Fold this protein.
Amino acid sequence: MLKINNLQASVEEKQILKGLNLEINPGEVHAIMGPNGAGKSTLGNVLSGRDGYEVNEGSAELDGADLFDLEPEERAHAGLFLAFQYPVEIPGVSNLEFLKAAIEAHAKANDIEPPSSAELLKQAKEACKAVDLPLAFLKRGVNEGFSGGEKKRNEILQMMLLKPKLAILDETDSGLDIDALQVVAKGVNSMRAADRSLIVVTHYQRLLDYIKPDFVHVLADGKIVKSGGPELAHELEAQGYAWLENGEKAGENA
Amino acid sequence: MSHWFENAIERGEQLTLSAQRTASLELLKNTPWPTRKTEAWKYTPLKAVQGFNATASEVLAAEQIEGLQAIDVVPGSELPTELPAGLTMQWLAADDVDASLFQQVKPNRHLFGLVNDVLAENVLQIRVAAGTEVATPIRIVQQLTAGSETHVRVLVEIEEKASLTVIEQFAGSEQSLNTLFAEYRIADDAKLEHYRLALQTEQAMSLGGSHFQLFDRSQLNSNVVGFGSDVSRIDMDVRHSGQHAFAKLNAIYLLDGKELFDLHSTIEHEMPNGTTEENIRGIAAGSARAVFNGRIHIHRDAQKTLAELNNRNLLLSNKAEINTKPELEIYADDVRCAHGATIAETDKTALYYLQSRGIGKEEAQIMLNFAFINELVDDMPNQAIAEWLRPQLRQRFAKMGE
C-alpha cells in the first residue's frame, strides 16, 4: 500500500528526516513512536504535502502512485488522509459545507456519483453520533471554538466520511482525556479493514492500548531505528526514550 | 453647485417647517456642495446625485425575508394597527417633530442628514415602554420605483430594560434616490438588535445613517450589509452617553462592477467603562470602490474604555479600490484600544487543511474568501436573516470577478 524509501526532508533548510524507510501492507496498523523532535509530525506533513516541507531525497508511493508528484488535494483523492495534530479552525465555513465540498471533490476525482445532499447529511449525522459530537456541530464553523477533544473527534469524523486507503493519525491522543480517547479509538477501530491501513503516530503507548498496532517503529533523529511488534510499545513505556541517546552515543564511540 | 442640491433647498423653502427643521434649512444653505477636496466625500463622487431629477416618490415593499415574522413598515403607507403590548408606532406630523427625538441623536454634520431634516416627508416614531421585550422585529423596507426620491426619518426610543429588533432594509436597482436617517435612544439596561441591509444596486442611490445613543448598561448589536450602487453611503454613529454600555458593530460589503459603497462610522465614548467592538470586512472586485472611515473618539472622562476597530479587505481585481482610514482619538489615559486596517491575506494553514481533505486549491481559496464575509453573517443573532442573506451573498460572490 505505502512504500517509503530513503525519505529525506527538511523544514526551513534544517534536515529533519534523514533516510526513512517504511513499508505498509493493506490492512496493517503501524505505530510510530519516538521522542519529541524525532520527526514524527514531519512525516505526516511531508506525505500530505504541506507547504514549507521540502523533500530532498527518496520516494513515497501510495499504491504505486508517487505522492511527491501530486498536489495535496490529489494525494487525498489517491486515498491519503492525515488527522492533524492541531486541526485548523475555519470560521465562516460550516462543517457540513466543508464535508460536502470534500466528499464531492473525492467523488469527482474518482469519477463516481457524489451522494445526494440528503444522503450526505444522513452520513454526516451518523458519523457525528459515532464520535459523540452533537449534530449542531455540523452547522458551526469548521473546528471553530471546539475544545481540543472535539477537534480530534472531528478529525475522526472526517476520516469516517472520506474512507481513506491510508490514514495517518498524528498524535491524535494528545490533549485527550481517557473518555475522549476511547471515543476516538472506537471510531478508528470501526474503520479498520482489510483494504485500509493506518499509521498511528504517538509519543505515548496509552493510545495503543485501544488501537492495537500490528507493528511498532521507533523514530529517532529522522530515521526508524527499531521495529517490532506491539510488545515494543510496552518496552518503550517502561524504559522511556533515553536509551536511544545512549545507544547512539555508544555507537558513535565504538 | 449642484442642480439637485439647489432644487432640494428650493423645495425646503416652500415647506412649512418646524423651528428645528427651519434651523437645519438655514444650516444647509450655508453648507457647500462637496467636492473632491471635502474630506467626508473625498472618495465618493456625487455626480449621479447632482444630475438626478425626481419625478415621483413611490416606495414599494421590498421582498420578504423568508422565515422571518416581522412588523413591516413601508414609508408612505399605513402602519399596522395590531402591535404587541408596550410598542407604539406613529407617523409624526411635520410640526410634531420638535417634541420628539428628532435631531437628538444624529449629529448635524451630515450634509444629507440636513437634507433629510428638511425634506423628510415621513417621520416614524417608535417607542418601546420600559421593561417590554418586543420579540417581533420591526422591518422598515425601502424599494423605490424609477425616478423616485424619498426622505424618511425614523425615531426610536427604547425605554429602560426594554428590547427591540429593527431592520432597515433597502432594495431595488432603478434610478432613484433615498435618504433614511434613523435615530435610536437606548435607555439604561435596554437592548437594540439592529440591521441595515443596504441591498440596493445599480442606479438606486441611498444616502443615510443609523445613529445610536447608549445609556447605562445598554447594549447595541448592529449589522450592516452593503452591495454598493452608483452612490451608497451610510453613516453609523454611536454615542456612549452612559457607563458600561456595549456596542457591537459588524459590517460587510461585497462590491463588483462599478459599484460604490461608503461607510463612515464615528464612535463617541463620552463616559467611562464603555465597550465598542467594530468589525468591518469587505470584498471588492471589478472596478468597484469601497470607502471605510472609522473614527473612535475617547473623551477625557471615558476611562476604562475598551474599543476595538478592525477593517479587513479583500481585493479580487487590480482595478478594485479600497480606501480605508481608521482614526483613533484618545483623551483618557486608562483605556484599551486597538485598531487596524489590512488587506486580507489567505490563511495558508486553512488552505492546506482544506486541500488535505481533497478540496482543490482554487475552490478552497473561494471557500476561504467567502468565509471571510460569512463569518460575520454567522455572527448575526437573527438566524432567519442570516439564512436569507447567505445564499444571496454566495450568489453575488460567485459572480464576482467574472
In short: The helical segments of chain B are 3-14, 19-29, 47-50, 111-119, 348-356, 361-378, 383-399. Chain B is about 20% helix and 40% strand.
